[in-house]
Amino acid sequence: MYQQGSNDVLRLLSDPELEELLQLYALKSGIDSFQYLFIYTQLQWNKKLREKHIDEQDEKWISFRKKFYTHVNGDFRKYGTYVCLHQDLIQSVTFHTWQPNCNELLECLENTNLIQWKNEALLINVAPECSEIVKNLVQRKGGAIRRARSCQGLIFKRTNSLNFNKTSIPDGYELGKVQEKHADLIHSLWANNKEGSLDYIRGHIKINKSVGLYEASSNELVGWIFQNEFSGIAILQVLPTHQRKGFGRILVEALTAIIAETERIPVTAWVVVGNVKSETLLQKVGFERAVVYEWIQLENVANKL
Q: Which GO terms label this protein's molecular function in UniProt (predicted)?
């Protein structure tokens, strides 16, 4: 039975509770943990959206409003159990607990009505010890797995970020923040773009840290990189006409330094296991392997019934 007035096993956490959960993860797992950084970034986004007086119902900003839940009858302070749901073009689901048998978390996943098991939900950062259990749960819920990819989480500790030697920028180029007028270009070349994702790019430009590489003579944007929801680096791109010149490394180093200098957190990055090119670049800069999690994309079974 759930608490009076609740019709679901999941209870939404308030911002003060989310702040408390953040501190619990700092003590339990450290600020280098991806769970800490995920919660940290959402709290930062919440603050920036309030400062800009952006209405909570404004769908242009839906990509930056993740909701964190815990067991309605549990105490998140005991096991740090949370389920994060984010509804954009598809639903993304992230979850974690430090309870050894994961019982509280599994009860949440098993009994909630809020997860779209049959409608293309993306399960993010599924820990190896939970992977098979979660995949079996997908089947019991009538869902199907389209693709499961192992992703390597890499980390660059803040102390290293403050002290490393950055590659010199070649003559004729300069670094600066990405400008909103470049959103269409960035979106058109982004490998993960889809209908409606242009607002995601525009939002990153407005509230997140970014670095653009410009030709000094024309002020043409030739490369870019953004900070993502794990306070890490993402959406790295260099125009085909300017590749093989070391610009990718320059962009990675520049954003890594900015994050380290302005926030008291490490810098992270995710690459699909087997993406040797991207991982090699990150390791040259100084990133180190930290974890391997699975990202599980579900099928749209609902439309096939």
A: acyltransferase activity, transferring groups other than amino-acyl groups
